[in-house]
Amino acid sequence: MEKQQWSSKYGFILAAAGSAIGLGAIWKFPYVAGSNGGGAFFLIFILFTLLVGLPLLIGEFVIGRSTQKNAVDSYKTIAPGTAWHRLGNLGMITAFLLLSFYSVVGGWIVIYIWKVVTGELAGLDGEAYGAILNQTIADPFLVIIGHLFFMLFVIIVVAKGVQAGIEKASVIMMPALFILFLVIVVRSVTLDGAMEGIEFLLIPDFSQLTSDGVLFAMGQSFFALSLGISVMVTYSSYLSKEENLIQSASAIVIMNFIVALLAGLAIFPAVFSFGLSPDEGPALIFAVLPTVFSQMPFGMGFLLIFLILFLFAALTSAFSMLEIIVAAQTRGDVNKRKKSAWIIGLAIFIVGIPSALSYGIWSDFTIFGQIFFDAVDFLVSNILLPVGALLIAIFIPLRMKKEVLYAEFSAGNTAGRRLFAAWLLFIRIVVPVAIVVVFLHALGIFDWLIDVIKG
Questions:
Q1: β-pairing verdict for 370-371 and 366-367
Q2: How far apart are CA 421 and CA 409, in angstroms?
Q3: What are residue 370's phi and psi, to 5 degrees?
Q4: How far is it, in rounded angstroms, from Cα 194 to Cα 210?
Q5: Is 295 helix (H, G, I), strand (E, B) or coil?
Q6: CATH code of domain 9-454
Q7: Which residues of 166-187 are buried (b: 16+ CB within 10 A; e: fewer)?
Q8: Neighbouring residues of 109: CB distance < 8 A, sequence distance ≥ 6
Q9: Cβ pair 124, 294 in contact under 8 A
Q10: In whole angstroms, how far apart are CA 334 and each of 69, 152, 196?
Q11: Where is the chain membrane-spanning (predicted)?
Q12: Residue 36 CA: distances (Å) to CA of 29, 40, 182
């Protein structure tokens, strides 16, 4: 049976970075940072990524590369005869649900690209852009077509395989993403009044940072690296035994920092330059930025560039979500890949339809007071992802032999026992504690305890 494998370390890093650099880095990070002090949030985010995200990323790499198997079979191989393989199943379920509504947002990007190309977004004022956003996401035909178009592209790429599909697409899209980002950043930072936005992002103002902001930064630190759903277990299983896992993980984290920085430099200087607010929430990309770009010379051209890079980031993340499920279902049989990718991908599209209709004809349908899109988002982001990340952090020191961990950790590098011991300490204590804190905060348990204490 032919073994799926990356053709090069470069291809693996770009594909893994593409998985990590998605809507969270370009969409969520700017508006969460904008609401939590800008530079202070960014600094805390970097700190937590190094202390929590990086150790867990290396941990997922160790699991996948040590077994050279998909997420489910990796846990079966390491802990045979136990229920730990359910952790791989949990990752598949999480990826399935995550991609079902992630694809809906990807569809919105596709729709907005079309609107820019056809001139529909040119020459409008701020209120008009907000109205267009509301009309767009409420239009059942448009959102389902966008959702379908996005998923079809993801299916086609994943069906082609690891090298010919995911790696080839990532090697093209990721460098293009950085180039397009630089074009937007140069334009943004050269606007009149841009310095205020640059200072907002780069000069920490801790007086604007709340305890909630610190916890959001901690959560963003491991969600931004695609951790908790065993995607990186699957991706690293295609990696040769000679590759340096620490170096690869560090490169991915650094690329993630750079993209977060570029996203901030692309958005905040432009927003401040035109006197708009950086804390507009999810509408920042689809309503505020069009307002900004519409007031620039060649603004629609720059908006189109931004939307294309946004689409590339969304796609490279979506590839990994579908791949973890396809890999587990095909178990390395390349002859089954194409059929599995289409069946699973179309099933995800169907399950995502209620999310696509949540802001329109199904807006009255709620689950625990939330529309379907928000309910699935809450389930994935606040429950399944942190639970998955916590279980992975527990699994590594509990079920993997120390000599296997060290062999994988030190392969291809000169890492000594002290660095290995430090990493293992973080995996055993720091990472689980951080995840539990984020989990309790996301569920509102901290607020409940404070209310109880206050009486």
A1: antiparallel
A2: 11
A3: -120, 145
A4: 25
A5: coil
A6: 1.20.1740.10
A7: bbbbbbebbeebbebbeebbeb
A8: 146, 150, 307, 310, 311, 314
A9: yes
A10: 14, 20, 53
A11: 12-33, 39-59, 95-117, 137-159, 171-194, 214-239, 251-276, 296-328, 340-362, 378-398, 419-446
A12: 10, 8, 25
Residue 3 burial (C-beta neighbours within 10 Å; 0-12, 13-18, 19+): exposed
**DSSP, res 4:** P
**DSSP H helices in 224-371:** 231-236, 245-273, 283, 289-294, 299-330, 334-356
Contact between residue 4 and residue 172 where contact means Cβ atoms under 8 Å apart: no
Tokens of 137: 């996401």
What predicted TM-score, i.e. pTM, was given to this entire model? 0.92
pLDDT band at 1 (very low <50, low <70, confident <90, very high): very low
Tokens of 206: 């801790």
Instruction: Please give the Cα distance from 176 to 165 (Å, whole number).
Output: 17
Contact 397, 409 (CB under 8 A): no
Phi, psi of 367 (to 5 degrees): -125, 115
Taking residues 44-61, report their average pLDDT: 93
Of 59-68, 176-185, 213-222, 358-367, the one with minimum mean pLDDT is 213-222
Distance, CA of 138 to CA of 247 (rounded, Å):
45
Q: pLDDT-based confidence at 322, cuts 50/70/90?
A: very high
Query: In 3D, which of 426, 22, 21 has the Cα closest to residue 253?
Result: 21
Q: Which token pair is 198?
A: 């640059």
Longest dimension (CA), the chain: 64
Alpha carbon distance 44, 221 (integer Å): 9
Domain residue extents for the chain: 9-454
- Which is nearest to 355 in space by CA: 337, 378, 372? 372
